[in-house]
Amino acid sequence: MSQQESGAKPRIVSCPRCGGKSIYAPSNPFRPFCSERCKNLDLGAWASESFRVESEAPADDQPFGDPRLQ
Ligand SMILES: [Zn+2]
């Protein structure tokens, strides 16, 4: 087998969303995702995840320490 140095060959990465092959090149505007669908799905998951974390933050009316000790 002969080694080929082809700089024009697009780099293939695995899509973070579906694990499929994704072309990591300017020709793929959705990189590192394989498609617009995967990119939108991932962004949507991230948005709902951060929203959930924010809504689960501890309430401010929780006193610091045990009030019975004061
Ligand atoms: Zn994908």
From TrEMBL:
Keyword Zinc: yes
GO molecular function per UniProt: DNA topoisomerase type II (double strand cut, ATP-hydrolyzing) inhibitor activity; zinc ion binding
GO biological process, one term: regulation of DNA-templated transcription
Family: Belongs to the DNA gyrase inhibitor YacG family.
Entry keyword set: Metal-binding, Zinc
Quaternary context: Interacts with GyrB.
InterPro entries the UniProt entry points to: DNA_gyrase_inhibitor_YacG, Znf_NHR/GATA
PANTHER family for this protein: DNA GYRASE INHIBITOR YACG
Binding sites annotated in the UniProt record for Zn(2+): 15, 18, 34, 38
Annotated Pfam families: YacG
The protein's name in its UniProt record: DNA gyrase inhibitor YacG
Cofactor(s) of this protein: Zn(2+)
General function of this protein: Inhibits all the catalytic activities of DNA gyrase by preventing its interaction with DNA. Acts by binding directly to the C-terminal domain of GyrB, which probably disrupts DNA binding by the gyrase.
SUPFAM superfamilies: Glucocorticoid receptor-like (DNA-binding domain) (SSF57716)
Record-linked Gene3D superfamilies: Erythroid Transcription Factor GATA-1, subunit A (3.30.50.10)
Cofactor note: Binds 1 zinc ion.
Keyword Metal-binding: yes
